[in-house]
Design goal:
Shape: elongated
Structural class: mainly alpha
CATH superfamily of the domain at 77-134: Cytochrome c-like domain
Low-confidence stretches: none
Order of helices and strands: HHHHH
Strand content: under 5%
Distance between the termini: 87 Å
CATH topology of the domain at 77-134: Cytochrome Bc1 Complex, Chain D, domain 2
Largest sheet: none
Bound molecules: heme C
Radius of gyration: 37 Å
Helix content: 40-55%
């Protein structure tokens, strides 16, 4: 015993530590022996062989389901459907927040001037009125 001094680690603790160290060393050696940690496979990734396609299997994709949202009924809807769906679905209109008359006018002007859709002035007015009537803060239903 060592009365008054610091406690020594017990023999049981020391032998347990030695056993764990031995086990770890053995495990590491076994892995490096297997090639897991060797220089041999540096820079290459082992990959499984590609499975061969089954000759009897059918590979096909069905038609993509397109959701075509309905515009509110009212004067001008046909013009919107005719002109505005030439490039994109009405979803582009419906995914906007409610807009004021001026904002819809700017939107239509952008489609005409920036994106080049030739819409006669008189039809533009009807379209803008339609959009402002059904898709403004006060009137938008859904
Ligand atoms: C010549 C093709 C074309 C036509 C016709 C057209 N658009 Fe567009 N529209 C676009 C393009 C391009 C965008 C922008 C798409 C993007 O940014 O991803 C767009 C976007 C929009 C947007 C989304 C907001 C924005 O400014 O990007 C709204 C709303 C819209 N269009 C409304 C209309 C309306 C209303 C009409 C009919 C008057 C119309 N579009 C006709 C091409 C067109």
């Amino acid at each position: 015993m060592n009365p008054g001094g610091r406690k020594r680690p017990s023999a049981v603790f020391l032998s347990a530590a030695a056993a764990i160290t031995m086990a770890a060393a053995t495990l590491l050696f076994a892995q490096s022996d297997r090639g897991d940690y060797s220089q041999r496979n540096l820079g290459s990734l082992a990959q499984p062989v590609m499975p061969a396609p089954d000759a009897s299997a059918k590979y096909s994709v069905g038609s993509y389901p397109l959701y075509w949202p309905e515009l509110e009924a009212g004067e001008g809807r046909e013009l919107v459907t005719g002109y505005c769906n030439a490039c994109h679905s009405p979803r582009y209109i419906l995914m906007q927040p409610p807009l004021t008359h001026d904002q819809w006018a700017a939107e239509v002007t952008k489609m005409v001037k920036t994106f080049g859709m030739p819409i006669p002035e008189s039809d533009q007015t009807i379209i803008i009125n339609y959009l402002a009537t059904h898709y403004s803060q006060e009137t938008r239903k859904r």
